Amino acid sequence: MVAARAGMGRGGPLFQLTRHPQLVPGYGPLETGPRTAPLALTVVALNFSGLWLC
Fold this sequence. Notes:
Layout: H1 2-23, H2 29-53
Helix pairs in contact: 1-2
């Protein structure tokens, strides 16, 4: 239960970071994706690196 809430807590801000460029500056989904890909890949890499620490 705690892990599920922690996952939602990390996923929410990442979702908002992909929606903000679409709503405020007016970029399309195909323009927003490459702009947020480095952040998303960094989050995924850090999540997997945490598996080896446990």
